[in-house]
Specification:
binds manganese (II) ion, alpha/beta, 2 domains, six-stranded mixed β-sheet, 10 helices, inorganic pyrophosphatase (n-terminal core), 11 strands
């Protein structure tokens, strides 16, 4: 139902501005850019903008536009991949005529005139493909570039089809997308290249993580450690999966010290951890969530809660 409504609104409006979350990942860029590309290639007369801060590490996917304030006056605004309003990049998102939310995260904030939230989707890009299928009924076509962007987001959010969020639907969409002639090996190379300084920090993490008998693991990355390796706090986001394949680890947490707070990245292979995140200024998926701690004492509390959920899970 929502899909039809969204298609109708896109057809109605001549100006469409697409947002996504701060600290973007390939799914954020892919869904934003993929949707923009679908509209641009099928409705050449419409003005389509993408907004948000440019992340140089994702420039191989898309380049953001400079959107003037006036553009919002008559615009349809679409926010992709963002559960909470505070995380929407470019807070002008509520300045348009109509607002649409498209997301696969568990609902945090209820926002937008039209909301399409599907927590069974592996990625927002998967949803964008379904949206395209609605356009396809009206003879729309998918460009090679749109296919590349959507594929990148699915690959990113499923950990290259590894995570349990990967469903039969996900794979059948991927199977369709690989029929397009975009350069898949090049895309993988761009997505998974590791800069030398980050590789060295990986070594530090593997040398220093703690594994407890309950099956939970913690690693602290203090400002000093990050400075020593020349890695920014945000660059560590790509390393969180690192501990996932180590024998005996059920769930794990990265504590990454930033300027004012300590960023908490929780991952799990069984125990549900987003409840812990919600108690510490965060949220997310049952098996992958993020939070914020204000002190190292608070990180101890989080570790204790992680211990508890692992213990209960093992029972
Ligand atoms: Mn996503």
């Amino acid at each position: 139902m929502s899909r039809k409504e969204i298609v109708k609104l896109i057809e109605e409006f001549n100006t469409i501005i697409i947002h996504r979350h701060v600290r973007p990942d390939p799914d954020a860029y892919g869904s934003q850019g993929g949707l923009a590309e679908i509209i641009r290639s099928n409705f050449p007369d419409k003005k389509v903008w993408m907004t948000g801060e440019q992340d140089p590490s994702l420039s191989f996917l898309a380049v953001m536009d400079e959107v003037p304030d006036e553009a919002y006056q008559d615009a349809l605004v679409i926010v992709c991949d963002t559960a909470n309003q505070a995380r929407i990049d470019d807070q002008r998102y509520h300045d348009g005529q109509k607002l649409i939310k498209i997301d696969h995260h568990p609902e945090v904030d209820f926002y937008g005139d039209v909301q399409w939230v599907d927590t069974t989707a592996s990625s927002t890009c998967e949803m964008i493909f379904h949206l395209f299928e609605e356009f396809e009924k009206k003879e729309a076509s998918l460009s090679e570039e749109a296919a590349r962007l959507i594929y990148a987001g699915i690959v990113g959010d499923t950990g290259r089809f590894l995570f349990p969020s990967t469903t039969q639907k996900t794979l059948s969409i991927a199977a369709k997308l690989v029929n397009y002639a975009f350069d898949r090996p090049a895309l993988y190379n761009q997505m998974y290249k590791t800069p030398m300084h980050v590789a060295k920090l990986k070594g530090y993490i593997l040398q220093n993580f703690e594994l407890n008998e309950e099956g939970y693991s913690t690693i602290k990355l203090s400002k000093e450690v990050l400075k020593h390796y020349g890695v920014t706090a945000s660059e560590t986001s790509q390393l969180v999966g690192l501990l996932g394949d180590i024998e005996g680890i059920l769930s794990w947490v990265f504590f990454v010290e930033e300027e004012e707070t300590i960023r908490v990245r929780l991952r799990s292979k069984g125990p549900v951890i987003n409840g812990i995140a919600a108690e510490h200024n965060g949220g997310g998926h049952p098996m992958a969530a993020g939070a914020k701690a204000s002190t190292w004492e608070e990180t101890e509390e989080i570790a204790a809660k992680l211990k508890q959920v692992c213990k209960e899970y093992k029972k």
